[in-house]
Each structure stands twice: as structure tokens, then as C-alpha cells.
């Protein structure tokens, strides 16, 4: 029984870490009033390029770095088109997502000569678990939280860092001010475009990191549908978390809990699955998110300028 609890809670962490990185990265951007729905395409591209680099160099950390680089580039492209060219943010996000869908499909088959292969390409080197001395020996919690890959321990640091940045520093006040009203912020001397570019850089790196985890830690193969709408789920979880770092992580853990549970439900209740379509169980995480949004969505207040176009004050 203890082993089942251990495995289940570790699965919750495995699911929540890539979504957590992506959620915190998107949070930084949306707090500034930028609605970047191309997070879905960013996850696709970073997962694919991380897989390609890891496949050829057999080093998952190289894959992590290229995933972060792809995330930065994609987010800066979004920033350029929406901030400097002045295109609608939603339309830019949709266009970037469509490009990511098509390009990943083509690049994967081009790189691995798909038609000439008999088996699916797979990588041999995933990130290994690292035991933290003494902490990993704690009853129950030690095995769950302190016997994880390096990327998970970094996540433990990123969460309080983002929280302190947004809630305890003058820079967090500037970010919040820009998201509420960039025109006033610009007039009082806050460089709106500078802060937006910095947060797009950091946010893109975090989202790219989240995407690369799918093919450097969670899976040794790349599949066309492995992201499966998780970018849009992250946006929904941001809404549930009221654009607050800790509340967003809480919403992500709730989603991850349900997703980890639905895999074990099919195993533990095999007799029920004879009468219940497995597709119903697979949709439980998405259904849970929708239900919670319906219940508390009206009470959530987004940044006032989220998704609106802004032209620099002369």
C-alpha cells in the first residue's frame, strides 16, 4: 500500500513539473497584459527539438538547453509581432500554433526519415533521479520529493523565486502596474516594452524548459500528439490560480492529481472498465478543469489590460 502511495505521488510530481514551468513562464507574460496562446506550439517545438538533440547527443541536458532556446525564440517572435508590428495577440498566437503543428510534423519525419524506418526512434538517455543525502531518507516524503531529477529540484527553487519577484520586489510592482494599465505606467517612467521583453525572454525559457521535459524525462519517444492541448490547459489553470504563482501551482497540482489518478483508475478498477469507456477516464483531468472554471470562474479578475493592444506613449 505504501508503495502505491509513493508511486502515485511521484506520478503527480512528474505530471506537475512540466506544467508548472510552463504555467510560471506564461504567468510572467500574462501579468504584463500579453495573452500568448502560442504556449501550446512552444511546448510542441521545444519537446521535438529537445528529443532530436537528446537522440543524437545522448545527453538530456543538451535537450533541455535547446528546448529553452526554442521557447525564448518563439516567445520573442510573439512579442515582436504583437508589440512592434501591432498585430492582434490572439491571432498571432493562433498563427504560431498552426505553424508549430505543421512544422513539428514535417521536421520529425524529415530528420528521422520516417518512411524508411521500421521502428519508432527512441532515446537511451533520460534524466536520472538524484538522491539528496539525509532528506531522501525521510519517511514517506523523502522518497517522493528528494529522489528526483535535477530539474525537479530547480523547480522547487523557481516557485518561491517567482513568488518573491512578483509580490516582494519593486519589479513585481512594475509588472503588475503594466498589466493593469501600460499607458499610465509608461507616463510615470516605467519602460513597458523593456519589462515585456525581459518577461517574454524569461517566460519563453521556462515554457521551453517545460516542453523539453516531456522528451528528456517523461518519455523516451516523441509522438505527434504528446502535448495534447496542455498549453491551453495551462492557460485555464492560470485563470483558476487568479494569476498568482502559488494559487497557479495549486491548480496545476490539482490537475496533475486527477491525471495521475486516471491512469491508475484503469488498472485498479479493471472490472469497472468493462462497462465504462476508457475515453471517459482519459477526459477526467479536462472535465475537472472545466467544472472548477464554471464554479469559480466568475469571481476571478484578470489583469485589466490582458489581451489588449498597446501603443507606446510618445
Radius of gyration: 20 Å
Report the helical percentage. over 70%
Strand content: under 5%
The count of DSSP E runs of length 2 or more, i.e. the number of strands, is 2
Q: Which segments are poorly predicted (pLDDT under 50) over 5 or more consecutive residues? A: none
- Specify the number of helices: 14
Plain-language structure description:
With 314 residues, this protein is an all-alpha fold. The chain has a domain at 14-123 and 141-234. It is 70% helix and 1% strand. The chain is built from 14 helices and two strands. It has helices at 2-30, 39-57, 60-84, 89-111, 141-145, 150-168, 170-180, 182-187, 192-218, 230-240, 245-268, 270-273, 278-282, 284-296; strands spanning 130-131, 147-148. The protein has a two-stranded antiparallel ribbon. The longest helix is centred in the N-terminal third of the chain and has 29 residues, at 2-30.
Sum this structure up briefly.
By secondary structure, the protein is mainly α. Helix content is 70%, strand content 1%.
Which SSEs are present, and which pair or pack?
Elements: H1 2-30, H2 39-57, H3 60-84, H4 89-111, E1 130-131, H5 141-145, E2 147-148, H6 150-168, H7 170-180, H8 182-187, H9 192-218, H10 230-240, H11 245-268, H12 270-273, H13 278-282, H14 284-296
Antiparallel strand pairs: 1-2
Helix pairs in contact: 1-6, 1-9, 1-10, 1-11, 2-3, 2-4, 2-9, 3-4, 3-9, 6-7, 10-11, 10-14, 11-14
Amino acid at each position: 500500500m505504501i508503495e502505491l502511495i509513493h508511486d502515485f505521488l511521484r506520478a503527480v510530481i512528474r505530471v506537475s513539473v512540466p506544467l508548472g514551468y510552463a504555467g510560471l513562464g506564461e504567468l510572467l507574460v500574462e501579468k504584463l497584459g500579453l495573452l500568448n496562446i502560442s504556449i501550446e506550439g512552444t511546448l510542441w517545438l521545444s519537446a521535438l527539438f529537445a528529443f532530436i538533440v537528446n537522440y543524437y547527443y545522448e545527453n538530456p541536458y543538451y535537450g533541455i538547453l535547446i528546448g529553452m532556446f526554442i521557447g525564448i525564440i518563439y516567445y520573442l517572435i510573439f512579442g515582436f509581432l504583437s508589440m512592434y508590428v501591432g498585430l492582434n495577440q490572439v491571432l498571432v498566437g493562433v498563427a504560431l500554433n498552426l505553424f508549430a503543428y505543421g512544422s513539428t510534423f514535417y521536421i520529425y519525419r524529415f530528420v528521422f526519415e520516417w518512411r524508411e524506418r521500421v521502428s519508432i526512434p527512441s532515446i537511451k538517455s533520460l534524466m536520472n533521479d538524484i538522491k539528496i543525502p539525509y532528506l531522501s531518507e525521510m519517511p514517506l516524503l523523502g522518497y517522493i520529493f528528494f529522489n528526483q531529477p535535477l530539474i525537479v529540484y530547480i523547480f522547487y527553487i523557481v516557485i518561491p523565486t517567482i513568488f518573491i519577484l512578483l509580490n516582494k520586489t519593486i519589479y513585481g510592482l512594475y509588472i503588475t502596474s503594466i498589466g493593469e494599465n501600460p499607458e499610465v505606467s509608461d507616463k510615470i517612467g516605467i519602460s513597458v516594452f523593456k519589462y515585456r521583453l525581459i518577461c517574454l525572454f524569461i517566460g519563453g525559457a521556462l515554457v521551453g524548459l517545460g516542453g523539453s521535459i516531456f522528451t528528456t524525462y517523461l518519455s523516451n519517444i516523441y509522438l505527434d500528439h504528446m502535448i495534447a492541448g496542455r498549453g491551453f490547459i495551462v492557460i485555464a489553470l492560470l485563470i483558476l490560480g487568479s494569476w498568482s504563482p502559488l494559487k497557479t501551482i495549486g491548480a496545476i497540482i490539482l490537475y496533475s492529481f486527477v491525471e495521475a489518478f486516471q491512469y491508475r483508475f484503469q488498472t485498479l478498477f479493471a472490472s469497472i472498465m468493462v462497462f465504462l469507456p476508457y475515453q471517459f477516464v482519459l477526459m477526467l483531468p479536462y472535465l475537472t478543469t472545466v467544472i472548477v472554471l464554471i464554479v469559480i470562474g466568475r469571481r476571478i479578475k484578470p489583469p485589466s489590460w490582458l489581451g489588449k493592444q498597446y501603443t507606446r506613449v510618445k
